[in-house]
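Anyone? Bumping this.
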Amino acid sequence: MAKYKRILITGAAGRLGSRLRGGLAHLADTIRLTDVNPIADLGPNEEFVQADLDDLDAVVAACEGCDAIVHFGARADEDKWQVILHSNIIGGYNVYEGARRGGAKRVVYASSVHAIGFHKIVDQIDAHAPHRPDSLYGVAKCFMEDLSRMYFDKFGLESVCCRIFSSFPEPADRRHLWSYLSFDDCVRMVEASLRAPVVEHTILFATSDNREKGFDNRLAGHIGFHPQDNTEPFRAAMEAATPEIDPKLPRFRFLGGYMTELPHPDDAKA
Amino acid sequence: MAKYKRILITGAAGRLGSRLRGGLAHLADTIRLTDVNPIADLGPNEEFVQADLDDLDAVVAACEGCDAIVHFGARADEDKWQVILHSNIIGGYNVYEGARRGGAKRVVYASSVHAIGFHKIVDQIDAHAPHRPDSLYGVAKCFMEDLSRMYFDKFGLESVCCRIFSSFPEPADRRHLWSYLSFDDCVRMVEASLRAPVVEHTILFATSDNREKGFDNRLAGHIGFHPQDNTEPFRAAMEAATPEIDPKLPRFRFLGGYMTELPHPDDAKA
Amino acid sequence: MAKYKRILITGAAGRLGSRLRGGLAHLADTIRLTDVNPIADLGPNEEFVQADLDDLDAVVAACEGCDAIVHFGARADEDKWQVILHSNIIGGYNVYEGARRGGAKRVVYASSVHAIGFHKIVDQIDAHAPHRPDSLYGVAKCFMEDLSRMYFDKFGLESVCCRIFSSFPEPADRRHLWSYLSFDDCVRMVEASLRAPVVEHTILFATSDNREKGFDNRLAGHIGFHPQDNTEPFRAAMEAATPEIDPKLPRFRFLGGYMTELPHPDDAKA
Amino acid sequence: MAKYKRILITGAAGRLGSRLRGGLAHLADTIRLTDVNPIADLGPNEEFVQADLDDLDAVVAACEGCDAIVHFGARADEDKWQVILHSNIIGGYNVYEGARRGGAKRVVYASSVHAIGFHKIVDQIDAHAPHRPDSLYGVAKCFMEDLSRMYFDKFGLESVCCRIFSSFPEPADRRHLWSYLSFDDCVRMVEASLRAPVVEHTILFATSDNREKGFDNRLAGHIGFHPQDNTEPFRAAMEAATPEIDPKLPRFRFLGGYMTELPHPDDAKA
Amino acid sequence: MAKYKRILITGAAGRLGSRLRGGLAHLADTIRLTDVNPIADLGPNEEFVQADLDDLDAVVAACEGCDAIVHFGARADEDKWQVILHSNIIGGYNVYEGARRGGAKRVVYASSVHAIGFHKIVDQIDAHAPHRPDSLYGVAKCFMEDLSRMYFDKFGLESVCCRIFSSFPEPADRRHLWSYLSFDDCVRMVEASLRAPVVEHTILFATSDNREKGFDNRLAGHIGFHPQDNTEPFRAAMEAATPEIDPKLPRFRFLGGYMTELPHPDDAKA
Amino acid sequence: MAKYKRILITGAAGRLGSRLRGGLAHLADTIRLTDVNPIADLGPNEEFVQADLDDLDAVVAACEGCDAIVHFGARADEDKWQVILHSNIIGGYNVYEGARRGGAKRVVYASSVHAIGFHKIVDQIDAHAPHRPDSLYGVAKCFMEDLSRMYFDKFGLESVCCRIFSSFPEPADRRHLWSYLSFDDCVRMVEASLRAPVVEHTILFATSDNREKGFDNRLAGHIGFHPQDNTEPFRAAMEAATPEIDPKLPRFRFLGGYMTELPHPDDAKA
């Protein structure tokens, strides 16, 4: 197979990043890892560059010589504005600048359902639906999708923005029965995003092949992402654990789940 | 699994209703049956309440204490206006009033292809297509879909309107090769409609997984209905029995089949 | 101009019906009026047939010999189910049966914004939007739109369903600034609907040419309805009379206005 | 099964035509073959009529007595205007005139991706997308799709226009990984197009069931075409053979591939 | 104003072509006229080149040195295949080749409603609607729209395809009340098409500003065509002359009018 | 008329802000102005609060007691990332936080064509089209549109995002003939945005009523913005000044004009 020379994984010490290391190893001569935290157990074709995403120079240096970037770093939940601003917005911008200056061809970006969290599950939206973020976190995801759109239109840098719904070791609540993305399917998604011959700027909805679906992924057919897992093994236990669903509550009606009900993060007591 | 306390099945002595009794038994502590005709062979978790759908008080009483209603009662074919008016329109209204007054959370309603029967099969409509009923029967189905839409928007009562195409013991004519819904798939459809966590007001097209398809069901992905049967076992015999298809005839072109060619039912001789 | 032989106006003694008598006089040799109440002051080309819409035989007799029907009769507000059922549903059915049996070519029907009252003004819907009635009254309007669709598809009887928003002597509240239809524009609308060469089954949104608009009427371009009035003369007084708008209230957000907030009419105390 | 009496295959000596002979044999009492070149090895239910598509009288004669026509003849690549004009445009017109005059009920036409070759793969178009031909060859395919649309609307002659992407013995370049249609799937496609009960005028996108997809075929669900092959067995070799993809090049971005980059065929040196 | 150096008008001796001569004179230093018939009365900035559109060399010569081409030549009604083929298809191809080889920047092409004549007036189509030609003449118009699309996508030659509905000295039948394009509005349309800064490949629907409209022209807003005439002065006489409209007849229902009812032109007796 | 108590204008010393002061005076008891630069000439119902948008506390203080905010402050052209980040992104966030904390009901925000600058003029997009920013400046506008969407969905704060195309004293180049928004129309736009009874979250395209249009504004009909000016008085001079348009250049094809061709602002030499 045609390999990349060097793939950079940001957030490589994180929950998903650490799973991607092994899964993507066969796609490149070298996998470069970066994280704000050190990574000790490097594999044979792995290398590590420590960097805070907030530091443009460090990020540019980490991107140097990488023809593909898998950007899974940054804060992965709602947080105060200063955290989101520095980790997700400034950090995200820095990664795209690193990609552009370093001559990368493609970025696979861990976007999120929270970019469109205020759409209803019954509306079965597709990738043409306008942004409706449900949180500051979601607004930052929108920012990254828009930024990457401009980096493709203007600079020719391709991106796949994978709107991950719920990626955890296993489903943790009732909503996850339809929103869950298994770690293995997450790796399949990134691999497909890296191997597809042309992606330009693609929005991909990302769950496993669960029985109930909350979106229409037909506009990403050229990625060739075919999830293999589903949540049926967890169904009985999950349904039993959530005997009462109130369909009027935002957490059930909207794609974004509980995040649609969170208050402004800067209102919370420290 | 999270069970309903009591599911009411209307038309429980009918062709489809009688199949639903067994199929839904595991979903509730009690299955209450209602029909204008008596039902003798009650199972261990079944109870029976006799009621004419046309009688509001009787229907309200039947709905009392039911948290879900599977409304499969009423006249199941084109008929004179007075029959459709009383059985399908007034009877249907009574069921929704029963549901609302009794505090039910969800109704699964046996709507029909005849609500959109004058759309063409080649147009591959989805649930956003406007109503185009093909008969008084179809107009009554539209009435019920619109009524249930209002009961959700105003009163929060959820509904799944299942547009059943052709549900019989087995395919009976050439059109059924694509329009057939097996009884087992019909049960799967109702079960999925009852188990889906949020349905708000959903329109579901309902056939088995036949080779040829006449609609686009993507807007009901959150129901998780996956038919398991298909009509291939019947194909050779059916095709042989219908050597000549005239694609200009409404019965072949339109989703509603023969019903699009029926005269006004009140013009027929008594 | 090509005249109709005889136009029937139902509800001819009502608020709008009485305005239509003069406005349509030049379009037919004879204007036949019908109402449950008597009309005394008949003009030279007018004739009167008393009929309760609920009475099929009487309605059929009234329609006899009419090549066009302007159906503005029936209850014009939310009401108890039995009223809506008899006046709007059964009465409306009777008018279409009268039209069909009497050989009329076209019906102009006073439908209503309340057939789509739960759509939001900011969504700027067009005639392809699904029904979202806001009341029993609205459900009956949906019923009539669906019934007339079938009468065209099956029997070739043309209809223009005019979704009247707010037609009163003058604007009466803040919402009317965008929803108002003057009586003169209402007459223009019916005249255009009668004169357009082909209408098949057309949905027309009907307000005056007000500064703010709540819908997209482009799908009715073949009707040639061009309202001439607007609410600017009433603006200053109306805005002063409604100093506080709460955009979260259904009465302001949704097309249907206050009717979206009404309780079920049968819950009200007698 | 209900058989056709006589199916005519044009271009029966060609790459795809010769594969169709065996595949369609069971669908008709007689398979009539036509080609500008002679065919010697006729099977038991085969007959041969030699004809140049450019010759109206010969084509009309070949169509005589055929109730279905599988039109796979004509130039199968970009070529000079005079070749395209005579083989594809005039020849194609002659086949439709032959079908009409001979009373055929249905034509299955080998249209091509090149009718919409200037749409981008990432746009995932469906059959409603406007024509965007990429070559004179593609313009001729558009002509045939439009001509056949008129022959249905006016004369009731049904057509399935199969937009074949890349049908070869096996995938020959990187783009074929998503665009390839195996010969066996091609036969399945024609069989489904002949057997579907009603097709009116249908546009069908035609590739095998490859991992990556470049279009949305939902509008052809009534054809019942389910490809069984895919290109995974060829993937490793193909990816290795195309190490560098430049997503800015038309040959990769657009559905039509290399044909979007060809100069005008009449500019080429003889 | 920025002038063109030389505008070529084809069909300059024809009904519309002769009106364009004066109307476009101020837009170019030189107006070159071409027609198969001689033109004697040349104005001061006019020049004439006689050419049969069917003759590629002659057409190429006529196009030489022209930076814009207004292609209004060719047969302007339904006709036998050989006429349409030579005058409209081959002739039209020759004009685009002339434009391409001569380095023209823009073509304004007299397309026709007959390219979409089998769409219904009540469907209010826009420029995204697929072709539905109503005649061989209409198929040739589709061919030209598709050819010009390719000449823009591949060679950068801009086109405005003006779908002229009914352009005559004055309205001649009832349908013209909505379909009429006055000669003055026709000139305005061509002028706007020539002056708009960017047109790429634009489809423009072309009638005067008549009271009833049969299409949605919003996708051509960048052309800036604002018709100034309408058919109201002709209405009374026209309506009187067409007392009976049968909305079931194709000539009234479909955009293409009478042409939808014509038989195949080669079936007609000589 | 119903007045606001206090409207805050940000950027009140700027090009557009200074024009808004007078134009909005009649809409509120008090107009509060804010800018990083001092404003000396306060009118009778004006008050001034100096604030740098980058300073959250200062902005929150400025918003205190204002029931509407007209946010026209921040950098108004492409600039280096640090400028855009602080002035447009952080500054914009601060204004929305100020609005939320201060209890404002509505924000009118000066968004920009550059949020969708990479859409083509010939595509005639509407407000449902996805973001396609053409610059860092455009990305910041997208950020603000997304942020304000969330502030409405979650906190109920209404916004009108006015995508201003080109607002200058008069048209300055050829593109402005269609993209120009006069200062008077800009004031009309803000006034309409403040007076419309319900806006939820509205996207409004903003030019004067120019002959050529580059977008479809029908989704903002409820705002009631009717521009009164146009660029015809400037046309002759502008067309003469731009004799050559190359329709292949991004600056002419795309809505965003010259900004689509700018390099990354951080690549420019200081």
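Late reply, but here is one note on the structure posted above: Chains C and A do not touch (no CB pair under 8 Å).
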